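Progress note, sequence design subtask.
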């Protein structure tokens, strides 16, 4: 082997070790984020009169993390021409959550004048997005069900805490995750007991890894 080739191998090996160390550090940071985040609700207190079914039901309820997202520039990108499409990796990420039966929701700002209920405002939001959609596959609205939370008044618009508080209250004993592209929203969500994750940051996964979200359920048992 030539000296030059030996040098190439040394650089390849050094690069591999650096990449492995970086991956290990990233994994440790993400794991710490998940395990150290506050729970969305206190652990249930069982009494002597609780039946096995009661305990099982409460335990099952604690194992169900719900993943909430902002919409614009978190799951959906708006191009310069006004057209919309999934952000890179968003469609496959939602599919992975769906396959693991992990519930998802949206916490997103829209004009409060779009309706008098969340359902009305969500319908208007869907119409607005669908009208400009240019992606090869439609946005997966059906994944979110009735978990699309929008401001009832302009004062409820994020970063006001109301929408996160409503999401948390509606999730029972489930731990709740919030993913968005803005540091301010992620910080507010964290302060309210959500497991936070800021998307779109360099050298990090595009979204909180599904395996870590599943770990939230296992940790709550």
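Output:
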């Amino acid at each position: 082997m030539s000296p030059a080739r030996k040098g190439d191998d040394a650089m390849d090996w050094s690069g591999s070790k650096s990449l492995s160390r970086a991956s290990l550090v990233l994994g440790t940071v993400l794991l710490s984020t998940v395990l150290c985040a506050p729970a969305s609700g206190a652990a249930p207190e069982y009494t002597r009169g609780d039946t096995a079914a009661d305990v099982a039901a409460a335990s099952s309820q604690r194992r169900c993390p719900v993943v909430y997202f902002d919409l614009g520039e978190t799951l959906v990108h708006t191009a310069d021409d006004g057209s919309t499409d999934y952000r890179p990796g968003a469609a496959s990420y939602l599919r992975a959550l769906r396959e693991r039966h992990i519930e998802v929701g949206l916490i997103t700002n829209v004009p409060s004048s779009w309706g008098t209920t969340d359902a009305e405002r969500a319908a208007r939001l869907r119409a607005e997005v669908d009208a400009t959609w240019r992606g090869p596959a439609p946005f997966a609205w059906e994944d979110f069900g009735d978990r699309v939370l929008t401001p009832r008044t302009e004062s409820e618009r994020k970063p006001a805490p109301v929408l996160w508080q409503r999401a948390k209250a509606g999730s029972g004993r489930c731990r709740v995750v919030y993913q968005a592209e803005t540091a301010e929203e992620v910080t507010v969500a964290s302060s309210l007991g959500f497991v936070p994750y800021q998307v779109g940051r360099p050298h990090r996964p595009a979204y909180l890894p599904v395996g870590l979200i599943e770990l939230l359920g296992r940790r709550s048992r």
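Helices lie at 3-36, 52-62, 90-99, 118-132, 162-169, 183-191, 210-219. Work on this subtask will continue into the next period as scheduled.
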